[in-house]
Design brief:
This is DUF6532 domain-containing protein. By secondary structure, the chain is mainly α. It has one domain (5-94). 60% of the residues lie in helices and 0% in strands. It is built from 5 helices and no strands. α3 (35-45) packs across α4. The chain is globular and about 45 Å long. It starts with a helix and ends with a helix. 6% of the residues are buried.
């Protein structure tokens, strides 16, 4: 799930899309990418605009999606701990 090319594309377009983009102006906050940024992108992808097979506008609200974000952060942190315990560096390659 975390190695989907769409995730990298979303990050590139959102934070590196032009010469004044936040990722270009403040690269220190994006190298390496953080668990929190990856969790935010995954949360945004979870918006249920197509849940009924027909598009409908759904607001991206912290109150509504906060638990989704927290679960992604927890899953990624668990993965990081597993990587450290086993010597696997899969998460670091994703970030």
């Amino acid at each position: 799930m975390y190695k989907q090319p769409l995730i990298a594309k979303i990050i590139a377009l959102q934070w590196f899309g032009n010469k004044k983009a936040v990722g270009i102006c403040y690269p220190q906050y994006f190298n390496p990418l953080t668990v929190q940024l990856l969790a935010f992108v995954l949360t945004a992808c979870a918006i249920r605009e197509w849940e009924t097979s027909e598009h409908r506008v759904v607001a991206f609200q912290g109150v509504k999606y906060g638990n989704v974000y927290k679960q992604h952060v927890q899953n990624l942190e668990n993965w990081r701990q597993y990587n450290e315990a086993t010597g696997d560096n899969t998460l670091e390659r994703v970030l």
